[in-house]
Amino acid sequence: MKNLVLALVVLITITACKNESELKKTNAIAVTYPETKTVDTVDTYFGEQVKDPYRWLEDDRSEETGAWVKAQNEVTADYLSQIPYREELKERLEEIWNYEKVGAPFIEGEYTYYYKNDGLQNQSVIYRKKTGEDNEEVFLDPNTFSKDGTISLGGLNFSKNGKLAAYQISEGGSDWRKVIIMDVESKEQIEDTIVDVKFSGISWKNNDGFYYSSYDKPTGSELSAKTDQHKLFYHKLGTSQRQDQLIYGGTEAEKHRYVSGSVTEDGNYLFIYPRNSTSGTKVLMQNLSQPNSKMVTILDNSDSDTRIIENVGSKLYLITNRNAPNQKVVTVDASNPSPENWKDLIPETENVLRVSTGSGYLFASYMVDAVSKVKQYDYDGKLVREIELPGVGSAGGFGGKKEDEVIYYSFSNYITPSTIYTLDPKTGASEVYIKPGINFNADDYTSEQVFYTSKDGTKVPMIISYKKGIELNGKNPTILYSYGGFNISLTPSFSIANAVWMEQGGIYAVPNIRGGGEYGKKWHDAGTKLEKQNVFDDFIAAAEYLIDNNYTSSDYLAIRGGSNGGLLVGATMTQRPDLVKVAIPAVGVLDMLRYHTFTSGAGWAYDYGTSEDNKEMFDYLKGYSPIHNVKEGVEYPATMITTGDHDDRVVPAHSFKFAAELQSKQTGTNPTLIRIETDAGHGAGTPVSKTIEQYADIFGFALYNMGFKVLPNTTKSKVKG
Q1: pTM of the model
Q2: Which of 94, 335, 503, 543 is the most buried (most CB within 10 A)?
């Protein structure tokens, strides 16, 4: 067993006066890490042998792995229990979390539905009213699915007439789902449960049945074994799942890692999107109004991303980045839908475009330096108006059925809780529909956008949020959070947990680094494959900007990110262990040589490439793979790795192996812990109670390792010298 005493040096000021002396005192928490055995596993890549001493931790079904998980959790729980203000953080999180949250309403059949959480319910409840009436009732309560909230609602879709609903459930956070079909009037299940559904929406074909996607159950562990042939099925009501019709994906020629299907609102067309990666899709179409119609190929390659957004009769409206990296809207007739017949309706601009439809209009949402700008168009492409938004931030929604008379949208930013607005599409007038009653005064906080320079000279935007009046003295506890991948854009949004962090005098900074989608396909591609180091350089430069401008310093800086963002944290802390005090990689992709061998990981190759592609790609991946770059004799930041034992998207073996490497090689006094949530997956559907506990642990661990003996907003002095 390996014993390590972690000395945490804390400087406590005797009074609030700046000129009074500061005294250093030492906190110590004794940590005994569990023994982690090593094995002699070696892989050979292009003639180079690579050791994998913790390969055995990839077996999520073994008793040995289970025992290791239990032992690590015991060590972590013991450490966290000794942080004096952990419970205080939890209580404040519960207090601020405990307000009613209501989602935008939507009409299905005779009813208006909406999601509502009374405050601390583990899962939001779906309520409904007869449209035009006031008497509300519970339609579906996911809190009844399990006592501890670990079975969650994964999706809810209604038939065209609104008389039937199909909803998905996730057990323990797994991506594998079950689908339950119910009669909305009686609220009773009407058929056997559909099982083994994964990475799927539910798209109804009128009132007769629906399309869904899944894989064959893999041999071995269903949580970690590779799944790479996705299939689209049609379930006809009144038949068993065994009779479901295979629509696409059943042959070698149709083999794709992801296949989805979507039916147009009028029920006349089915669109199929086969993909081998998270970027780039083929497009096929079937005319459902004509019996036995053949599948028509619109795009036979994956060089672009294209999807249907609307149709009026045979006139199709598509959004695409084909020859338009920032996306545009085109129209074409369904009788001859190939790209040479496309006509621009909303041309590409210098800003990235997203489009939604409702009330017979198109709503074009643009990102301008990661901030929303929304324009309303008619179906002929004529600009109706620019929507006047409540402020600078993120606006979402603007969707609905053609016959809807009112459109709903939400608005928030890092210091403004999400508020729902109504929009009259005829006049453009907006009104507040629901404003949250949260115990948080946004007027006390500020968000500012800065642009900093990355290593290669690229300008990168970052939004920095904090409480007004804090002194920029280099001693403010700061969380630097980002993602940097998969064309995902980080636009300003409110977080209850981050509100508590800022209450404590904390700074929350989010840079829009390359790999994301904030500036379109070029920005995304600049952070992929052999350009992936740009992502880490952008993040490192963000940290250096915060330090150089006295927002914080290395002793008070924590880096955090999840999934691909967990990779970001892992790569940053192994490349620049001196840069930050605390690292919190969540559900991270950390073994870049083997990520593609688990579940659907091979679908991430557009962003990463794989170690099997060629020697250049292997060398590049090995050069930054966090697991392969932990070195002996280096003092790494205080680290708490977080993952879930049922994560079947980024399997927990990534985190297990990274923790083992760090614990065996860490030099110095900084702790290396792993927090493994049981009956939890990649994050979606996590019960509120578990989420609150996670944040109390994350914030407590960060502050404690920055040297805070009491919470910053209650102590007589905040900082060490």
Answers
A1: 0.90
A2: 543
Element (H, E) at 94: helix 86-97
510 strand-pairing partners: 463
Count of other CB atoms within 10 angstroms of residue 339: 16
Exposed / middle / buried, residue 651 (Cβ in 10 Å: 0-12, 13-18, 19+): buried
Where does the pLDDT of residue 410 fall: very low under 50, low under 70, confident under 90, or very high at 90 and above? Answer: very high
Q: Alpha-carbon distance 309 to 294, whole Å?
A: 22
Give CA–CA dist 243/233, Å, rounded: 10
- DSSP conformation letters of 340-390: GG-EEEE---SSEEEEEEETTEEEEEEEETTEEEEEEE-TTS-EEEE---S
Q: Position of tokens 């070195």?
A: 631
| Radius of gyration (C-alpha) of the chain in whole angstroms | 26
| Distance from C-alpha of 59 to C-alpha of 653, rounded to nearest angstrom | 8
Active site amino acids? 563, 682
Q: Which domains does the chain have, with CATH numbers?
A: 70-94+440-590+634-706 (3.40.50.1820)
Of the pLDDT bands very low, low, confident and very high (cuts 50, 70, 90), residue 150 is confident
Distance CA 155, CA 140 (A): 12
d(CA 623, CA 589): 15
| 407-413, strands of its sheet edge to edge | 394-399, 407-413, 416-423, 430-434
| Rounded Cα distance, 539 and 565, in Å | 10
d(CA 368, CA 450): 14
Is residue 42 pLDDT above 90, yes or no? Answer: yes
Q: Residue for token digits 């998270």?
A: 278
Place of tokens 């070696």: 42
The CA-based dihedral angle spanning residues 387, 388, 391, 395, taken in that order and rounded to the nearest 10 degrees: -20
Contact 652, 590 (CB under 8 A): no
Contact 658, 630 (CB under 8 A): yes
Mean pLDDT of the chain: 91
